[in-house]
Specification:
Layout (H helix, E strand, L loop, with lengths): L31 H25 L7 H24 L7 H16 L3 H13 L11 H21 L7 H12 L5
Helix pairs in contact: 1-2, 1-3, 1-5, 2-3, 3-4, 3-5
Length: 182
């Protein structure tokens, strides 16, 4: 076939995404810690959902026992994911903030009082370098995304009565509402 000058049949069109043929090191690959952390995010979402279900349920409801068992299983799933992160070997620098965040999640899950929960939560703001993933590239970007998702999950955990007892909050709120002398 002969193509004449100015013919529209010879237009070039790229069909392969840019960068897809680059070496795999430019793309995100999981380590044992990042894989377990990704699973931790899913397990934590299930935990939050299950706890919301039982906090809104009536304990005299026949389905409450099943919901309670589901919440306990979800909690055990979160703790199992945290244990797998704690026992995994750090393979790259980006694993460290994920491990630190998992340890904070463990402290939040084990908190017995509002004060313990708040103390563990405050570490996120007091030591931001422990939970930061500097750098460029797919690995750093993905780890930062997972860390952001965990911060959102921590906020959701704070809204649950199993983590923050509303009865403990009431006296604290009265102190906050007291006017400050000028």
């Amino acid at each position: 076939m002969k193509i004449e000058k100015g013919s529209t049949m010879a237009n070039c069109s790229l069909t392969t995404p840019v960068g897809v043929t680059e070496p795999a090191s430019r793309h995100f690959t999981h380590t044992p810690i990042s894989r377990a952390f990704s699973g931790l995010l899913a397990a934590l979402a299930a935990h939050v959902e299950a706890e919301r279900d039982i906090s809104a349920a009536d304990s005299r409801d026949p389905g409450f026992a099943a919901s309670l068992c589901e919440a306990e299983a979800a909690r055990a799933g979160v703790l199992a994911r945290i244990d797998s992160i704690r026992s995994a070997t750090v393979m790259r620098l980006e694993d460290r903030p994920l491990r630190h965040m998992a340890l904070i999640c463990y402290l939040l899950m084990q908190a017995g009082t509002n004060a313990e929960f708040r103390e563990a939560r405050q570490v996120l703001d007091q030591a931001p370098g422990l939970f930061a993933c500097p750098g460029h590239g797919a690995v750093a970007w993905r780890c930062r995304q997972m860390l952001r998702s965990m911060r959102v999950a921590v906020g959701e955990m704070a809204s649950l009565p199993c983590h923050l007892d509303p009865h403990e909050i009431e006296p604290e709120m009265a102190a906050v509402a007291t006017p400050v002398p000028a």
